[in-house]
Amino acid sequence: MSSSLKAYSFGPFTIPPSTVFYETPLTFAFVNLRPIVPGHVLICPKRPSLLLKDLTHAEYSDLWATVRAVQAVVEESKGAGGSNVAVQDGPEAGQSVKHVHVHVLPRVGGDFEVRNK
Fold first, then answer.
1. Which of 3, 38, 42, 57 lies 20 to 30 Å (CA to CA) from residue 117?
2. pLDDT tens-digit profile of 39-52?
3. Which residue is catalytic, options 40, 57, 99, 101?
């Protein structure tokens, strides 16, 4: 998994190349700057789109193939037994950045209990 030296847009934000760890011709994955759990990453289409329904078939397929590949690597690297995979599809669904993105949160037993103590 590698990234180019190109910075990408994520809504109004510029994602530094140093945080992008995986990309395809249509999609990129980067480290969440405000992680909920260790290893929390985001996967986005390179073309800014507000909603999943705005993606082309190729972008949609590539996004989810990338989610699957990244999820497996993140789970292995964090020793996780599973992941939460989430999309907030639109402002009414809690989307805070106007750019389709998928959250992958690798989960280990008791991770929220440790965080909340």
1. 42
2. 999 999 999 999 99
3. 101
